[in-house]
Amino acid sequence: MRPDGTPCQPGEQGELVHRGALVALGYWNDPERTAQRFKPAPGQPEGIVNPELAVYSGDLVRTDEEGFLYFVSRNDEMIKTSGYRVSPTEVEDVIYASGLAGECVALGIPHPVLGHGIVVVATPPEGGTFDGEALLMHCKQQMPQYMVPAKIVERDSIPRSPNGKMERKGLNDEHADLFKDIET
Question: What is the set of domains in the chain, with CATH numbers?
């Protein structure tokens, strides 16, 4: 769905909204998060006493012409830089396609001029060595200027949560001061 509650066209990015018999009624004992994600399903007439609820997932997706969904990013992970909204997944996909990194995470780190500076934390490719200059050159050739990382940070491994997901929050916190000395 678009922010105004209307359905997106094929290829257009929007928030995944789902409803149905197996959708929960809310977050257990968390009215604030429930109100944020569980809202009346779109398309219902005004004034219904108990409207059907839909889950506004926070996942940004797009559909193709056949109706298949493709995950783009999380709404709360979007990087706002130079007046643009950049999906970390878009940046990561370009880096993976280069073959110059094993794993990577794109982050939006507060920047006094840009809003957020894009920082990529990456590991060396399997069996290879890390070449940050070559990776940055690849990004400059494959991305619009506003998407090119301001910094690329090499790590031996990407920290993961207990359920195996990359620790974006921890990496964001770790690099939060990266641009603090830049003059505005």
Answer: 14-72 (2.30.38.10), 78-174 (3.30.300.30)
